[in-house]
Amino acid sequence: MTVRYFVGITGASGHAYAERLIRALVGRGQGVDLSITEAGCKVLRHELGVDAGERGERLPDVLADWLGADVAKEVRSFITGAVEAPPSSGTSLGGGAILIPCSMGTLARVSVGFSSNLVERVADVCLKEGRPLVIVPRETPLSEVHLENLLRLKRLGAIVLPAMPGFYHRPRTIDDLLDHVVGKVLDRLGVQNDVGARWKGLDEPQAEPGIGRDRP
Question: Which of 69, 149, 193, 203 is the most exposed place for a label (fewest CB within 10 A)?
Fold first, then answer.
């Protein structure tokens, strides 16, 4: 049975993580509901060259070129102001929501229940319904305000999963680093996956030497 997950993209840097997650979810038989905040649309255009419009209104027109036709057909997109969209109601069942990457502004509003757009509303629904809410912040350094908001969300039941890729798997490419974080997101959602390398122990061989190693 296909489960639909809501992916909310905000104005933080790191949109490649969101792209990788959408592909991974669809590749494992899951459906995706997608919405991008106004700031997120600007960053998406800057980082990935994808013009989704000012509020995500062009997403239906660009999804196939961005993600490929096979992935795009499993993605429902909504403009940022579509508070009437199915995912905004607790009666519309879903597997949970992932805010990836999550800006500190979105984080702050979600932490106090202030829903100014669809992304924040869906996050609020997940908290009140007890569904998985994965927050993937991509910011550094963190101020005391940021840390307090993160702690508040954790105490409210959210999963705080910063975009902090590891290096023990000896990544060779940016995709390796993206997969390390996306695999952890899928694990927390309970989606079986082989995305990213798993730790095998100090006495077991890992991947081939990568970043920071001399290669021919």
Answer: 203
